[in-house]
């Protein structure tokens, strides 16, 4: 299998992320496997990588297409010593790390769409699902799940996602080594998570804003069946999107589905 532990470990130069690496041909969801490992005490930086998922999950109870032999599905156990309210910052760290990694393969094509989709040429190539477990008033662990469409062909996407999704292959016409892609993502995540732990959240927020194609544009946000429209003017330190309504009032949106108008 192209994705195997010895070959990835040989290439991986990281301090924290991937110091324990587990690679599986098939799991239900790498987030579920990482969650079980974390409950057993799996250390910060443990990575679960799978060739395929039978029950890949996305945000808002959606499924994540996870065929074998084509893409990257990975989850990381993180144990930052932060209060639960700061946990959305970890998704921003991940989005910046993936955007940085993808720009090594598709320079000039990469952008971020709030809350944490990474796009290539304006279509979604990566989704991030971060799941939190609380201890006493603080985060016990976070499972950071990252799915990246690497070599998937347009015709293989489910019809309902086909027009809005893409892969590195679709944007570049090149088949990419998933091993190389995995190593690049884990190394960029190691770097940006290190920046975050060293107190560099404002730098990460600045990076996120510079990748984000929504700021300064009119957006429609769906929040639990309710729709609001306005100008995206920034993000808060908690990762919430700040929208300026037609009235001039500013509202912050913590979760939802965004469309640039
Ligand atoms: C989204 O955009 O809705 C988030 C998608 C997250 C998919 C990844 S694939 C690896 C990890 N395991 C899962 O079941 N989901 C995440």
What does this structure look like?
29% of the residues lie in helices and 30% in strands. It is of the alpha+beta class. Strands 1-2-3-7-6-5-4 form a 7-stranded mixed sheet. It starts with a helix and ends with a strand. Residues 29-31, 53, 56-59, 62, 64, 73-75, 117, 127-129, 145-147 line the site of biotin (BTN).
Number of helices: 7
Largest sheet descriptor: 7 strands, mixed
What small molecules does the structure contain?
biotin
Average pLDDT for all residues: 95
Strand order, sheet with most strands:
1-2-3-7-6-5-4
Helix content: 25-40%
Span of the ends, CA to CA: 42 Å
Tell me the series of helices and strands, N- to C-terminal.
HEHEEHEEEEHHHHEEEEE
Low-confidence stretches: none
Determine the strand fraction and express it as a percent band. Answer: 25-35%
**How large is the radius of gyration?**
18 Å
Overall spatial form: globular
| Total number of beta strands | 12
Structural class: alpha+beta
Oligomeric description of these chains? single chain
